[in-house]
Write a structure and sequence with these properties.
Blueprint lengths: L5 H15 L7 H35 L1
Length: 63
């Protein structure tokens, strides 16, 4: 190994750096709002998917 102990030292340095950068905790209201927004997005995607499915069946039956 040509680098010797350098990899281990770099790994420890990176661990110390990330330990100092703590994420702020999310409040319960913020978490609830985010969950509601995510759920709304998923409902919209499901509605669009259902519409496409019905449209394809309509096109198939029309022929």
């Amino acid at each position: 190994m040509t680098r010797g102990n350098q990899r281990e030292q770099d790994r420890l340095k990176a661990q110390k750096k990330t330990a100092n950068q703590k994420k702020p905790k999310e409040s319960a209201t913020t978490l609830q709002k985010r969950k509601e927004a995510d759920a709304e997005i998923l409902r919209a995607k499901q509605k669009a998917c259902d519409f496409r499915l019905v449209w394809h069946f309509y096109l198939l039956l029309r022929h």
